[in-house]
Amino acid sequence: MISIFFEAAFFKYENLKNMMDPFELYNPTKLIFGQNKIETIGKYLKADDKILLVYGGGSIKKNGVYDKVINALKDFSIVEFSGVEANPKYETLIKAVDLANTEKVDFVLAVGGGSVIDGVKFISAAIPYEGDSWEMVKNGGGDIENALPFGTILTLPATGSEMNSGAVITKVSTQEKLVFSNENCFPKFSILDPSVVVSLPKKQIANGVIDAFVHTLEQYITDSNKSSFIQDGFSETILRTLIEIGPRIFKDSSNIELAEHFMFSATMALNGLIGSGVKQDWATHMIGHELTVTFEIDHAQTLAIVLPGVWEVMFDEKEKKLAQYGRNVWGLKGDDRLVAEQAIEKTESFFHSFNVLTRITEYSEKCYLVWEIPPRIKERGWKLGENRNIDSMKVEEILKTRL
Ligand code: NZQ
Ligand code: ZN
């Protein structure tokens, strides 16, 4: 049995100064959740569609997912593309686009983690795209007019890519790891079978918990004056759930009940709901992507490095919300400043509890390369954070705190 420590989070209406930001919430992805759902995939496909089946480096062949998919699709016409790497590369994906065009496929099926799913978003959008598909990514996806329909079978709870319209693609030759998104890039369906968690290496479980945790925080530790009862309540529940089940599933990935909570938390953390009507930060992610490009550090590990630095440097703006987080999520008591500081410590210790290191020097001996990052931020003219006030100089300050 799972016992989640839910101290009631009381929200009080005290003449709040700021209403929610107006928002549109659109999410057409059908979630198919539960054990043995992979076997039912045929129900969600058109019988005469030619399918491009895309997967990664072969984990699905070892854990039986590939056999389940092939068996379930035995009456369908399939073309396979494998070898999509972690932090999917434009240079690889463009080959899948060529294959899809040559084979005239009608539907793309991603079987994998966030990298394979993101890769498939790129492939699906690039197939009908007229012009240079890297420009499509550089434009942030804004000019994508349509995409080939695609579905996903998720094998790693982490990114939320299975129920959002964003993707992160790396171009090796220019050292760019960039985000694009577009309403045409939602999966038609995503199959979430929690039993896929059993075969995950511990490192990937840690990465998944931390990525989902930080997605929630990037949409929650922002403006304390916003009226956001629903968003904060959902966010705090996701965070408490991950704190409760994360360390347990890290120890025992065979517990399907824990795997269900882990999987649903990660999906809910980045499907648009908790970010509606509130300010969103994402500085940690954008700086993290630069660390991945520079040092090849895993995505979630970069977040564990950067987040405490963003909070330290932006402490004054975030103090109140950090204090709310400290009280409602970690059960801390005291004045705002103390609770906010302790909440930062608790968060970093939480990352350490998964054996994840949080300093750049712990990952690379060439940490001087980190100083290539601020000029890149400057050249792109990026202003990060919920108040768009984290420029290249602030990024430098943040990185200095994380050596
Ligand atoms: O390639 P295979 O052989 O499949 O192995 C993968 C890979 O080595 C393995 N794996 C996946 N499922 C497994 C498994 N091994 C055993 N059993 C299973 N069931 O795990 C390794 C990592 O997979 P990957 O897909 O790279 O991990 P993750 O899901 O963490 O995705 C990371 C990528 O997603 C992007 C990141 O930047 C990064 O490129 N993100 C995408 C987001 C989005 N689209 O919304 C948001 C995130 O913030 C993130 O930026
Ligand atoms: Zn992430």
Name some characteristics of this structure.
disordered N terminus, Dehydroquinate synthase-like, alpha domain, two-stranded antiparallel sheet, globular, 2 domains, single chain, 403 residues, binds 5,6-dihydroxy-NADP, six-stranded parallel beta sheet, binds zinc ion
Descriptive account of the structure:
The protein is an alpha/beta fold. The chain folds into 2 domains: 36-192, Rossmann fold; 203-401, Dehydroquinate synthase-like, alpha domain, CATH 1.20.1090. The chain is 44% helix and 10% strand. It contains 14 helices and 8 strands. The protein has a 6-stranded parallel beta sheet with strand order 1-8-5-4-2-3, with helices on one face. It has a two-stranded antiparallel ribbon with strand order 6-7. Strand 6 (166-171) and strand 7 form a beta hairpin. Helix 6 packs parallel to helix 8 (256-269), helix 9 packs across helix 10 and helix 13 runs antiparallel to helix 14 (392-400). The radius of gyration is 21 Å and the shape is globular. It binds 5,6-dihydroxy-NADP and zinc ion. Zinc ion is lined by residues 159, 211, 215, 285, 299.
